[in-house]
Amino acid sequence: MEAEKECHNFFEKLPITICRPPAVFGERDKDVFEFFKTMNTGIQPLIGFNRKKVSLIHVADLVDGIIQSAESENSIGQTYFIASEDTYSWNEIGETTAQVLGKKAFRISIPEWLVYGIFGFGEIVGKFSSQPSIINWEKARDVTQQYWTCSIAKAKKDFGYKQNLSLEEGVKRTVAWYKIAGWLK
Fold it and tell me: Distance between CA atoms of 146 and 48, rounded to whole angstroms?
């Protein structure tokens, strides 16, 4: 948010376009990799007991969207979400990932209060480590939201953005890369 505020200070001087991605996954990603690694064990943790919905984007589609926005005169001085056309439940994401991995996923629902406890503990441990913890209080707030969604309607209208990779195609590319790189077996 602070970076966007700073960009707004230069809208009159520079041809700036702001692109906001949701959760990004794909080749070389380390944060969402933890989800794939857990799914590879045959376990899908679900946060809370309500059906959560998210917007996602494969990194290739994000890059395409950023380039399209940068090349469009319509996008100067504008802000866009670059995301999937659909929103997905974690059940849908898990089913797709399990199918690509050739696994049957056993779903475990974790109460939100327990997530805050575990992630809070992770943050405390991270303070004594040379590496920041990916499990922290801020991440707990993120994963416990019922909706983490956005609309790409403005990007479609202004510069014709569209998602090229389906969820399944994106997951297949990501898993294939993880296996080639030796991150998944």
Answer: 9
